Amino acid sequence: MKVAVVGATGMVGEVMLKVLEERNFPISELLLVASERSVGKKLTYKNEEHTVIGLADAVAAQPDIAIFSAGGDTSLEWAPKFAEVGTTVIDNSSAWRMDPSKKLVVPEINASELTAEDKIIANPNCSTIQMVLALDPLHKKYQMKRVVVSTYQSVSGTGVKAVEQMENEAAGIDGEMAYPYPINRNALPHCDMFLENGYTKEEMKLAREPQKILDDRTFSVTATAVRIPTAGGHSESVNVEFHNDFDLAEVRKLLSETSGIVVQDNPETNTYPMPVFANGKDDVFVGRIRRDETQPNTLNMWIVADNLRKGAATNAVQIAEYLVENNLVSNTSEAIS
Ligand SMILES: NC(=O)c1ccc[n+]([C@@H]2O[C@H](COP(=O)([O-])OP(=O)(O)OC[C@H]3O[C@@H](n4cnc5c(N)ncnc54)[C@H](OP(=O)(O)O)[C@@H]3O)[C@@H](O)[C@H]2O)c1
Fold first, then answer.
1. What is the average pLDDT across 63-89?
2. Residue 131: its pLDDT value, please?
3. What CA–CA distances, in Å, run from 44 to 4, 32, 52, 134, 207?
4. Residue whose CA is closest, atom 4 of ligand 1?
5. Name one Pfam family in it (predicted).
């Protein structure tokens, strides 16, 4: 495969290259793409140096697959240009997620929806991916009615500038601010921009994306998204009300048997998921599994995952792997020429 990584110099882009290398994704030619600011920079993949190129040159090279992690505006403008030359785009931004003509994919749940005609495929929001992976087997068994989620999100979810802000603050250095307030020793109930309804865009992604991924609008999700000064992963407190009652041992079994989930849940040994353990791992970790004693058929869980891995790069590479394994990538313009 001729593969373009768009946003290769960014936080997600860097992990994307690691994940492609670790999983030995079949790459015959690699194009590393970023903004004009980075054109000419050198990046290393599998011990080989590659020079960063611009978007127009990458389109002209007609890659088979382009994995975008370069913000919504870049995706809106450039993903269709790649699609036009036959490239299959897997996009990490929010640009296409709720477009009814685009698939929103967590491979363990709905990769089977993908076809060769899907030229722009959306990767869900990082906080959505880890939550929906845990909700899917439980929804199938007990049928969800309502989910209340509060997130504790890592600064790495905002990108390079936010990590720099946190590090500068911790070191007492005056620097550029990615957030309107200090993040070190703080908690900001503010992830992404505020919308007219008083929620943030991140909270509305958590509310809407699970319905699309699970192809079911009979349940609802309400969210509060909070940024905290961690760098290793996002954590979520998730309260789920089901239509049907459940057995806690069966809930644990269903979750442990789900591909991509690791249950870490033993109060006697202080075993529960935390960002320091999830950091650098591809799995989604679930713990603090307990009954909500204030309401029937309701469960509490704590879900943690590395937002740059399963929340972004790993999920995108898994989509690419599914496309290759199922022969769904065919750059027709290349085939014609
Ligand atoms: N961080 C996460 O946990 C996470 C999770 C899921 C999805 N995402 C999404 O992934 C995307 C990237 O996030 P990030 O955290 O990696 O941000 P980041 O660290 O700020 O990196 C942004 C990347 O996009 C490139 N870029 C920016 N403007 C561009 C343009 N006009 N043309 C070409 N390339 C451009 C940058 O290139 P330069 O270095 O040249 O500026 C850089 O490579 C965003 O859409 C974000 O919403 C992030």
1. 98
2. 98
3. 14, 10, 10, 35, 38
4. 157
5. Semialdhyde_dhC
